[in-house]
Amino acid sequence: MSAKRALVTGGSGAIGGAICRELASSGFEVVVHAHSNRSAAEQLVEKIRGSGGTASSVTFDVTDAKEVTEAADVILDDGPIQVLVSNAGFHRDAPLAGMKTEDWYEVVDTSLNGFFNVVKPFLLPMIRTRWGRIIGVSSISGIIGNRGQTNYAAAKAGLHGAIKSLVHEVASRGITANAVAPGIIATEETMKKFDKELIESLVPARKAGTPEDVANLVGFLASEKSGYINGQIVSVSGGIG
Asked: Is the pTM of this model over 0.90?
């Protein structure tokens, strides 16, 4: 396992960071991606190395296909990426009637077009190894929808379609493609919006999940044990949906 390399986009964030740590603890050489927060990615790399793992950082804008391709060329100089976690994304919520045009396009561009931009340059090198894991980090909103998130839900639902179609192209090459769909996860940003009472009313488990809950599932889907799980959208939501 130590020879396999993993790239996690949005690795500088709370969920992405937990995923990076989980993959590193499983023996992967982890490439931690950031866009604007390079210092957070570099700090995470140091923590992983301090725990005995192997990691490096990279910065690029997932919405810029040329920039992604140039970064991929550098990354691939050190060998193929065999686990690719497309985690970069954000939400900018508003009812559709009042949503700014740029808020629609920027959210979709990051979560959906960013998936295409990142997966494409790494796919053929992955295929040549006859082993790979492509994992999209989605959202429960992409499954059941959510008020004020038509842009975000549309992007994530589109990601589901891309994942399910990609399977038909790569499964025979020993590659799986799946998505994980978190619900309410206890990050700093999320907990500003959800108090304890609201979480208990929305989540059958009556609590928020943790970034590690998401990372544990990603770690399993990246492992040898998950080789016959393909084209699935798996919720990490405490029972929502």
From this structure: yes
